[in-house]
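Lab notebook, bench 4. We co-purified these components, and the gel suggests they stay together. Before we commit to crystallization screens, I want a quick structural picture of the whole thing.
Request: model the full complex, all chains together.
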Amino acid sequence: MRLLALIRKEFIQIIRDPRTLALTFAMPVIQLFLLGYAATNDVRNIALAVFDQDRSPASRELLDAYRAADYFRIDFDVDSEIEIRQLIDSGAARAGMVIPPDYSEQIAAGHTARVAFVIDGSDPTLAGTALSAATLIGQAQSTDIAVERLSRQGQLAAMDPAIEVRTQVWYNPDLVSAYYMIPALIGMILQFLTTILTSTAIVRERERGTIEQLIITPIRSWELMIGKLAPYVIVAFIDTIEILIAGILIFGVPINGSLPLLLLLSGLFLVSTLGIGLLISTISNTQQEAMLTSIFTMLPSIFLSGFFFPLAAMPQFLQWISYAIPLRYFLIVVRGIVLKGVGASALLPEIIALSVFAFIVMGVAAKRFHKRLD
Amino acid sequence: MLIEANNLHKSFGDVRAVDGVSLHVAACEAYGLVGPDGAGKTTTMRLLVGAFACDEGEVRIAGHDIRTRPEDARSNLGYLPQRFSLYSDLTVQENLNFFGEVRGVTSAELAQRGAELLGFVGLKGFEQRLSGQLSGGMKQKLGLACALIHQPRVLLLDEPTGGVDPVTRQDFWQLIIRLLADGVAVIVCTPYMDEAVRCNRVGFLSQGRLLTQGSPRELTARLEGRVLELVAEPRVRARQLSLDDPDVEDAQTFGNRLHLRVRAAAGPLERLPGTLAAAGVQVTRLKPIAPNLEDVFIALLEEAEAAHV
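Here is the predicted assembly.
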């Protein structure tokens, strides 16, 4: 069996290169930690400085409401607005709240009490979260007070609020970034590994001259292609399972959908990325060239696939370009299956897009892949 | 004919690397392809094995067209490229097994033939060594073993003894001679004339063209009676004076001797002793000798250059 001999040879070579092998299996875990812990958008425990000029039961109630939601941590109880400014300037506090001296009087009189909230906007993500959290907590408190007032006046003891907006977050109710990033990491690792490893594995034969001996064997081009790709498909699947297990064990990512479907569609995505690797190998003369070209294709994939930044927020022309990036579709697939537990029917457009990519990229690569030197 | 190549052409851009080469090699025959660096020897070999597609012409190996029936042609073909082309991260045994398996040698045959071949090339006991850690000569021997694992009827060797010590070179030729006895057709590219002499036929390649081909005897016969050996001191002066003679075309130094190529021997034999003696050059010997391949080669190259200008 020529094909088996090729695959066996490739595996021996993979094992004889322990440094690359270690990298191959260590990279996903390292990336997982980086993305799971460092690249998080979750905002908790924003340091808050409070200047409470009222110091009444009503103002304490308001502060308790802020304490209860763990967005804020009241770190500083100050006596002037200047102190708040200093704390925010120095970075010790990220937000400040000023409760006016007549806060309880205004509420008791049935007027609107005005509380000032200052937010350090230098980190937009943090500021955005702080802003909406501060507003929401204030509104909730205001509703409570309104209900209390009405009931005290004896009108409609158990009156319902006029409008109640009940928000409910599906799929990732705690909005944990890790849940969003880890499935996507599978897509990124799959693409990164397969393009780099396959393109360099093929170019290495050319660089070291071994291709000359391979050429004159009766191995057919397609056998050489499959023999070169198959070992890295297996490596990629081991990595996929590694990421899933690490994601579940370390970050508690719930797998809501079908694992076989996820692996099957990962396989479909791999056809495209292996094809890209193969294409790169046909235009590179050295392993360095192949590696640089692979990294070059990675950058647009990461930024234009919705990996870090939502596509909807991008300029129109970048959104158009994103349609030409297979990772874009795979991220929808993998996030859909892992987070939402959706089935194949909900992912049909993405499956079709990935199939088209697989067909075109692999087709062009196979056509360009010759068992010749010229 | 086991190897048939007709009118091969191959250009890279404007450079005609191979320009109309035809050669035919039969079983039991060793064909030596010689020529200066850049003459197109390696390109010709790559055309013969189908590593390059030729622009024009056709190659048949054991009757199979390398282009239309590459698998059949290659199952009869063993090739040892100039550059080491085995896997340095695989052991001797693994390389041999791999190239056997991809050529469809069964495992039973492989075990027997592999051991035989390693003994044949003198690599017994090195089976578990990584091939990247072999010496230059041993690498070439392993390359030869891998090229022979499927018992090809055609063997192409591209400078097999480049960078190899004289003893190993000798071993190598003994191996080739035994293969010839088994009915294999061999083409050897070599820059060494002493190796070319061992071939049944020799082709001189220059700038992609085969200037001439024939047995070493036929080739040297063309210069029969036209090479004189001159031993004289001081040699540099002797060479200058010889070149001044109207019938001397060329003078090459071989150690302490000069080979003079002459239009006809009679004139210089008569004139030179007097001319040299008059200039104070002491002549130890001046006599016609049998030309060697190198003389022929140099004469051919000069002719070709003259024709080009």
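The radius of gyration of chain A is 29 Å. Worth comparing against the SEC data before the next meeting. Residues 2-39+176-368 of chain A form one domain.
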